[in-house]
Amino acid sequence: MKLAAIDIGSNAARLQISTVLHNDDIVSFKRVEYVRFPLRLGHDVFNFGELTPESEARTTKLMQVYKLLMELHEVTDYMACATSAMRESSNGQEIADRIEASTGIKIHIIDGSKEAELINNVVVQALDDQQFLHIDVGGGSTELNLYRNRQKINSKSFKIGSVRLLEGKETKGAWRKIEDWVEENIDSSAEIIAVGTGGNISKLFNLASKTSDSESTRAEIERIRNYIAGFSQEDRINKLRLNADRADVIVPAADIYISVMKWAGANKIVVPDLGLKDGIIQLVFEQLNKEKTAL
């Protein structure tokens, strides 16, 4: 059985198709298809407050492509979720409805707490009994989640993200709000380890020196950030081989991860290969199981 997730963010829209594997009582998901396309919806919304007809047309075309890919893979079920840009757009729901009428793809516009919940459901599997601060930086928002002994203690969504910073559209006082939240919630008497999710931290982590397969240090992430910042946009694309839509947002995104880690006193960061798309697939699987049980 194959399941799919569509994640429509402020910077890019992703399709992930995974096969469900059963090993005795253990269920796992193996990625068989992954496509990412840079729609950059956040540019419209953070500057004009709504999505333009051009963005609607491109998003509609992309959903048609994703639908065809799901049909080719004979996907059993899927879910499409839109986050910060579409939920803040004054015409977001209207456009989502038109896309569904045109393509058959229903887009669920989810709030920050639901977005964090879906990510947390898969990230928690990578944690142990220590104190962790999960940092997920998207194009339009940053979600922070605090864990102790694998239990979520608190969480908060902030209107600051890589595209929003790039456009100079972060909400007033956003940096201070994050710093205050971290100070109020972190137990400074215990070690705190950061957990980073999102495309930008994954790219930074790939370029960084690592202390293990999934762990690096704040100092190393900062070194890589400064190294990238020393290149022009053109050289980041041609010399560092970054995608154009990654090259301009990776430094602003790094600033968020690094700042949060500094405020929390976290010197280490774990970067699991997980994100919203994985949480969506897990939710689709759980919903299918509930339907089978109800029959």
TrEMBL record:
It comes from the Bacteria. Transmembrane segments: none annotated. CDD domains: ASKHA_NBD_PPX_GppA. Gene3D superfamilies: 3.30.420.40, Exopolyphosphatase. Domain 2. It comes from Spirosoma agri. This is Phosphatase. One of its GO terms (molecular function) is pyrophosphatase activity. Pfam families: Ppx-GppA. InterPro entries: ATPase_NBD (IPR043129), GppA/Ppx_hydrolase (IPR050273), Ppx_GppA_N (IPR003695). Residues 29-281 form the Ppx/GppA phosphatase N-terminal domain.
